[in-house]
Amino acid sequence: MNIPDDQRNRRILVIDDNRAIHNCFREILRGSDSGSSAPDGGKALSGEATSDQRRMGFAMESAYQGEEGVELVRVALEKGQPYAMAFVDMRMPPGIDGVETIARLWELDADLQVVICTAHLEYSWQDLVKLGSSDRLLILKKPFDLVEVRQMAEALTAKWQLMRRGRHHLEDLEARVTERTQNLSQANQELRDQIAERKQAEAALRESELRFRQLAENISEVFWVSSPTGEELFYVSPAYEQIWGWPRQTIYEDPKQWFKNILKEDRPPVAKALSELSEGTNYDLEYRIRHHNGSIRWIRDRRFAIRGEDRQVVRTCGVAEDITQRKNLEAEMAKARDAALEGARMKSEFLANMSHEIRTPMNGVIGMTGLLLDTDLDLKQRDFAETIRSSAASLLSILNDILDFSKIEAGKLEFENLEFDLDGVLDGALSVLVPEAGAKGLELRSEIDPKVCTGLCGDPGRLRQVLTNLLNNAVKFTEQGEVVLRVFPLDETPSAAASISKTALRFEIKDTGIGLSKDARGRIFEAFNQADQSTTRRYGGTGLGLTISRQLVKMMHGEIGVESEPGKGSTFWFTAQFEKHASGKATPAQQKHQCLANVLERTPLKRTKAKKNASNETPRQAIHHTRILVAEDNEVNKRVMLLVLENLGYTADTVANGKEALAALRHHPYDIILMDCQMPEMDGYETSRIIRREFDRPPRIIAMTAHALRGDREKCLAAGMDDYLSKPIIEKELETALQRWAPIRHSEAPVDLQRLRDICGDAPDTMRIIADLYLEQGAELFPAMEMAIRNNDAKDLRSIAHRLRGASLSCGSNSIVPFLNELEELGNSGNLATASAAYEKASLEFAQIRSFLENHLQNSKHSPEEETFAGAY
Predict the structure, then answer these.
(1) Do the Cβ atoms of 623 and 739 come closer than 8 Å?
(2) Which residue of 220, 244, 780, 868 is most buried, as measured by CB atoms within 10 A?
(3) How confident is the model at residue 537 (pLDDT cuts 50, 70, 90)?
């Protein structure tokens, strides 16, 4: 049989301890025309297969010991590239001989064709009997004939291929016979099952037909069966007479009667669905009909096709029900919903407008009052200014209560989940009431049980809001005595994770004030309710504080209540659940009583306005050189912003609307724009979108808005703004925002070139290679770092920042290390709230490092002194 060369296995293994023999085989198998005897070993070629070998088609590999040959066969089998035949020498000291080698080869591959090569006569046939009787074994005596070797190679490789094919063919036949036998057995069983099922189906059909008729005759919906085209009606249930108002006999006589009663404007979709139904497409439609008595009724009609054994549609079935009552209710509900949505829209718009209209002038009142208090005032003037500021703060508190109540009522109040220290929250809530308590001569203190865990996870702002509401009421309604805040632990419940547990705390605010009656205790937690509702009441307020506190406590999975008697003071209490911080610990026993009375005795620090050229502090370079543009249309607020910025050590330019902001930005580069959102001609949102779209390196945009409802912050960020400040602008919050986004400018080169020279041996080429590798690594790690921040993957962020930090230190890129340290620490803490800002600063710093290194490498011929200052900023 002729076998195409591309289907033959012509891989041959030669196992012989004489390297000259291998060269001889290579010479023979490559097609030499020398005599019939084997070529001289000294003249044999060495090395890999030549082009002549490839032309012969044999692939030969060599082994010099029996063990080595066995290993090559094993590896070839694992790779799926077996050898077709092997030439094996009989004696290969010091390893195993040819007989043992062949036995082990056949243990691995029983199909391997073997030719024994021997020049010794001491091996008798009895020695070879150990290998058994096999047609896979031939003997070739040395010196061997070239033609004989070639014939053996051709014949045995072809034999190996034919043997493999025969075996595969036999296995295929056996598999096909087995499969055919299984298929016949399965077909016989299926036939028996089908006969049994058909008998059961016939019995079930008779029973189901009886049940169907009983059901169809008694349901309130119309059920019918017709031909695929609807020209012939086989069955219609009695409900047709009630819903359509016509006798059933009339529709049997005229199967199109039901369609003729559909209102003309509703017929087209029904007609289209009927035509598709005959092709097997189901439908579910709603349409109107005219009842026999003239009334209009809504019908829901669901129809489906029934197919025969040939998959052709043989019947169509349908169920129709009267949904007139449901449609009427839906219409009424739609009107009510539209009215409610309009009311909610108007309410939301009213609250937004109210927030804007109140906060805009309050920004000027609070800002100017704060600036006024920074000037030299006499006692009477300072008292007036403090009164103005206190009144404005009260008005802002009322506005915040109204907005919070609106969010709670709409179910849109959100909670944060942050790590915080309980001591800090308690101190913050108590400290704001120290002046008022001191003015009344009250003792204000806190008592924390030593078992309380102070490291918690939750929303510290909302907890502080509840505490401030309750403490403020206690101080307001207490004229003498004390107000005490106590904190106790409740039973702790371990969570699913072994390293995290939850803790429940009970907070009590006890006062020695006027107390509450039973009636007042029952309604003070309701909205707009106060203990004293008379027009002559002594204490003011909106009546929303306790209502908001109750909702906030509920969102913290707790409860709130009060114990009180008139004239004997009150104890307001609430519980809340928190997760323990990983580093949380109990409060030390010596801190159980934290008395704030001493704070009252301290001399308050007087705030004075910083005078130019007279400051005792060295101004921070990154702040004072920040280029700021204020976009604000309100002249008072514009002046307030300039004065506050000046007080913080900044200078700024101002514009009145978005168009002027764009014009200013096209003429001068700015680092930060303080953008009012509501301005004439072009508002802050549209201006921000244009800036992001048209400027390659846009400035940071911080929104200043008098709107404070849910979604306002998201709206600002969606427009391309970077941060958000709510009016009235608080000086500390503004300073924090400016510090967060102000660019950092260096007065020195960002890379220590001497460090690079130390590790590169002052070799410019090596320095260039190291710098390129560092920049390539940074270009890969920064996108990965950004992805880790976006996915909130603290572990990945920590790893990447640590890796880049080490590379930066090694290459002398010291200027970026502080930002990478910050990112690594944020990754360790697991809190990535400020990671984006740190990443932006690190990214900008890396861009400066890249510019510096590229500039240095392009000017590497300069002297070391010139190089040091070439990239200075």
Answers:
(1) yes
(2) 244
(3) very low
Angstrom distances, CA of residue 115 to CA of 40, 133, 591, 725 = 20, 14, 94, 91
Asked if 630 and 665 touch (Cβ cutoff 8 Å), the reply is no
Average pLDDT on 363-384 reads 77
Q: Please tell me the distance from the alpha carbon of residue 425 to that of residue 441, in angstroms, as a whole number.
A: 24
Exposed / middle / buried, residue 70 (Cβ in 10 Å: 0-12, 13-18, 19+): buried
- Could you read off the pLDDT of 37-75 as tens digits, one per residue? 444 443 333 334 444 444 457 889 999 999 999 999 999
- Starting at the earlier edge strand, list the strands of the sheet with 296-307: 233-236, 222-226, 313-322, 296-307, 283-290
Long-range contacts of 94-98 (CB under 8 A, 24+ apart): 95/17, 95/65, 95/66, 95/67, 96/65, 96/66, 96/67, 97/66, 98/15, 98/66
For tokens 């195409």, the residue is 4
Q: What percent of the chain has pLDDT over 90?
A: 18
Convert the pLDDT of each residue in 436-478 to its tens digit.
Answer: 888 888 888 889 998 898 889 988 888 988 898 889 888 888 9
Do residues 444 and 483 make contact, with C-beta atoms less than 8 angstroms apart? yes
**Beta strand 443-448 with 482-489: parallel, antiparallel or unpaired?**
parallel
Distance from the first to the final alpha carbon of the chain:
84
SS3 category, 703: strand
For residue 547, what are its two tokens? 């209502």
- Which residue has 């036998």 as its token pair? 181
Q: What is the tens place of the pLDDT at every residue in 208-266?
A: 767 766 676 777 788 888 888 778 888 888 888 888 888 888 888 888 888 888 998 99
Tell me the mean pLDDT in the region 145-171: 89
Rg (CA), the chain: 46
For residues 89 and 25, what is the distance between their CA atoms, to the nearest angstrom?
Answer: 13
User: In a 3-state reduction of DSSP, which class is residue 13?
Assistant: strand
Cα distance between residue 85 and residue 12, in whole Å: 5
Residue 298 DSSP SS3? strand
Question: Position 415: which residue type?
Answer: F
Rounded Cα distance between 363 and 644, Å, is: 11
